[in-house]
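Just scan my protein:

——
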Amino acid sequence: MTTQQQSDNNVLTKWQATPEDKKLFLQFTQELTDWHTSGKEPVSADRDLQYSLDLQEKRFKKHNIRKEIHFKKLEDNITSRAKVFPGDKYNRGMNVCQAVEQDDYIRTTNNEKLYSRLRYGNFYQTIIHGPNENVGEMLYNCPNCGSVSKIGTLLEGCPYCNTHFKMSDLFPKVFTSYFLENTIHEDKMKKEMWIVRIILGIGMLIYGLIKDFGPLNAGDISPLFYVLASLITAVLIGFIGGSFLWAVWTFYSTLVKAIMVLPLFFSTFGTKKKANVAMKRIDPSLNYEYLESKALSLARSIIFSEDETALIQYSGPKLDESIKNIVDIQYEGIIGVSEYRIVPGPDGSAPIISVDVNIYARNFYDKGHTLRSKKEKIRITIAHKLTGNINTSFSICRIECKSCGGSFDATKQRNCPYCGSEYHLEEDDFVVTKLEIR
């Protein structure tokens, strides 16, 4: 990242991906494909993403479903983007490229294909390149045993499993990934255009062989010439007329889709401004993009959990039982912020900000005999104490106890294993106080 890019705080910068970025992108893509088929954990994913994938894997297994993904095409022009957060301890970026993805959901008990879908769009991977400073003092999960230690300690050898690591073993890592569909995709448009051309061309050829084409059916014209003339005419009309019909149909369908999403547009109008205002009440470095990734990550972990009331990141009521039938969530690329409010903290502590976030997604429900895809709104309320500071590199898998300084994994226990003190997540990160699907 250049000095100019680093100095432009909170501005999205974009450049061609480096060979290292491309290597990581392709590595994680292959590992994600392997995870769906074999359950092998992606080593290029960070601990929080592995935790989320573990929860979803358990949900798949409970419903006897296996999801297979195949990237039929990945463009070579992988680009990198970065959002620089003032005070952030890590270099963060995003790799993205156009892709074609085939999703298949299979019932493992009888190998029946429940649902299949071909998606055209962009595949996003958000990455952590590594710490900017004070590397040795930062907490990290041992990639071998998962225990929490300081990075400096891991470089000398994990105190729990004695595995030694190099910095290249710890970073870079992918910490979020998602696929966003794009109706205006070059490959999809080419495919649709050729389908229209071929159908029209075949139709004209059949018409030309049956009906009169003026002088072409005169007795002195050979049948071969007549067939060739009909074929050439069909190709020309199919190519030119098909292109015209495709253009008209594309314009019409795009207009209809635009009209259909108008309610969504008005319901999310001004979301970025609301989100930025709300986030900056917590910390000046935060913005819409941070809220988007955080809300999506929290929603996934809670929905895929078998007992959400046991999660440290959830303090709301028990979820509706129908949510337990959701086996997959495909983000639609947009969130809405309806409102935010600030209330006094308990016992005179720091005030708490609550933000109502709507996540628009396609949820997949196991209906026993089939899989049902449904576009829905995941509505969550997230809360955070206004302490005036936030660690954007915070991980629920590596917590430092405020009482004794001990490190532990909060996905496995609520209280510090060293001093027994109860840990309150809302002091360091967002907690979901309500989740419902509409």
The first helix runs from residue 3 to 7. Residues 1-12 have pLDDT under 50 and may be disordered.
